[in-house]
Design goal:
alpha/beta; Tetrahydropterin Synthase, Chain A; lyase
């Protein structure tokens, strides 16, 4: 069975080697759908009876990761020449070793969140897929 939680945040980035508008620093209102998979859990009359995981637990893990690491931050490729300005102005930034395209961001988020969910239920709970929206009309899906 699968369960999905949706979360949103704001983040800016740029695609330094791109030939269109995306080479400029710009932001998006990102939205992510996080889908987990496992059997229904819970002992009779236990608080988790009939659940895969409590939505609150999904929110706690996702919110902590996104709010602390990504929200209102600038995701930059570590070799981007814009970095000096970002550091000088003391902006919140996320250093990554990939060009921050929607596709690469989706893979990175999946790999960052997956162990956090597996830790809850001893590797039985699997992050099945994420769907990352860069705009309301454009998204990428990544998963197992």
């Amino acid at each position: 069975m699968q369960i999905t939680k949706i979360y949103e945040w704001d983040m800016w980035h740029r695609i330094p080697n791109h030939t269109s508008q995306c080479k400029n620093i710009h932001g998006h209102r990102y939205k992510i759908e996080i889908t987990l998979e496992w059997d229904i859990l819970g002992d009779k009359w236990a608080s988790n009876e009939g659940m895969i995981i409590d939505f609150w637990d999904i929110k706690k893990i996702t919110k902590e990761f996104i709010d602390e690491k990504l929200d209102h931050g600038y995701m930059w490729y570590k070799e981007d020449i814009v970095l000096d300005l970002i550091k000088k102005e003391n902006f919140k930034y996320i250093e990554v070793d990939f060009i921050p395209t929607a596709e690469n961001i989706a893979v990175w988020i999946f790999n960052e969140l997956s162990p956090k969910f597996e830790k809850i239920y001893w590797k039985n709970l699997k992050l099945y897929k994420i769907k990352l929206y860069e705009t309301p009309n454009n998204f990428v899906t990544y998963g197992i």
